[in-house]
Amino acid sequence: MSSSPLPSHPSPLSSPLPAPLSAPHSRSTVISELRAAGCVFAEDEAELLLSTARTAAELAAMVERRVIGLPLEHVVGWAEFYGRRVTVDPGVFVPRRRTEFLVGQAVGLGRRAGARTGRAPVVVDLCCGSGAVGAVLADALERIELHAADIEPAAVRCARRNVVPAGGEVYEGDLFDALPGGLRGRIDVLVANVPYVPTGEVGLLPPEAREYEPLVALDGGTDGLDVLRRVTAAAPQWLAPGGHLLVETSERQAPHAVEAFTRNGLIPRVTASEELYATVIIGTRPVEGQAIPGPP
Ligand SMILES: C[S@@+](CC[C@H](N)C(=O)[O-])C[C@H]1O[C@@H](n2cnc3c(N)ncnc32)[C@H](O)[C@@H]1O
């Protein structure tokens, strides 16, 4: 267990405990149980569980679930993402801190699209998982027309809890098949944090991911780029002229991802954050008459 702890600010669930905690789950026993289970940030996690549980029984259940290895976010039911709290249900991919870099890039592009067109930018969060990316974009952009989609029913249910209150819509289905046809050629910002772990490396992921996140959220095929290639192939038909597709990859995959963008007529740009250890490829659909640079 190595995931970093969520910040321990009080949750909406946290209210004074109705009954004193029973001796087996005092602060120190929670810490020792978490530590014995291999939690690197046992103290911080204990604080979070203590401030989230409303009863001693709830605390005991949370500690038990964490000790057997569930991701902390699945235990408490939310993840801290881009300064917001996003609901994450069991069985749904936990948004990663590194994806905040992709969000930051999308915010800039969304604002520019809004300024250029004079209307709310059309933003689509494809492969939305919990809907974290779309939901925080809706918060960060002054105006937005937001759509999100995923193939996994559990993810779609979870995304609805995050995206619908933000004014967006969530659809279920395989990539673009899930989207209303009316979005074709209209999307200003298309974010797609697709699964990109090469099949042979899925077994090397931490047990929290391997055992509690669905394989479809992780496995990107032999070189990890199968879903990304499908997205880049179809994206030009869905993007507005001058619209952007943003995907996250590993640093190693970036040159191959760039090839896929170029092959499909998107103008690629590689951006990276050392701090978040994140690589994001941004592909732009050329506007009419704009030259498409050839392969490097
Ligand atoms: C790496 S997770 C990213 C989730 C979310 N965007 C985030 O950043 O937290 C990839 C997501 O892609 C979804 N997915 C995988 N294949 C898909 C497909 N063919 N069509 C739609 N969604 C797909 C998975 O269900 C999973 O929720």
Topology record:
Blueprint: H1 27-36, H2 42-52, H3 56-67, H4 72-76, E1 78-81, E2 84-87, H5 99-117, E3 122-126, H6 132-140, E4 145-150, H7 153-163, E5 169-172, E6 187-192, H8 207-212, H9 226-238, E7 239-249, H10 254-263, E8 267-273, E9 278-284
Parallel strand pairs: 3-4, 3-6, 4-5, 6-7
Antiparallel strand pairs: 1-2, 7-9, 8-9
Helix pairs in contact: 1-2, 5-6, 9-10
Bound molecules: S-adenosylmethionine.
Structural write-up:
GO terms for molecular function: peptide chain release factor N(5)-glutamine methyltransferase activity. Its EC number is 2.1.1.297. Helix content is 36%, strand content 18%. With 296 residues, the chain is an alpha/beta fold. It has two domains: 1-76, no CATH class; 99-284, Rossmann fold. Strands 5-4-3-6-7-9-8 form a seven-stranded mixed beta sheet, with helices on both faces. It is globular and about 70 Å long.
How would you briefly describe this protein structure?
The protein has 296 residues and is α/β, with parallel strands linked by helices. It is built from ten helices and nine strands.
What attributes characterize this protein structure?
296 residues; alpha/beta; Rossmann fold; 2 domains; two-stranded antiparallel sheet; 36% helix; disordered N terminus; binds S-adenosylmethionine; peptide chain release factor N(5)-glutamine methyltransferase; transferase; EC 2.1.1.297
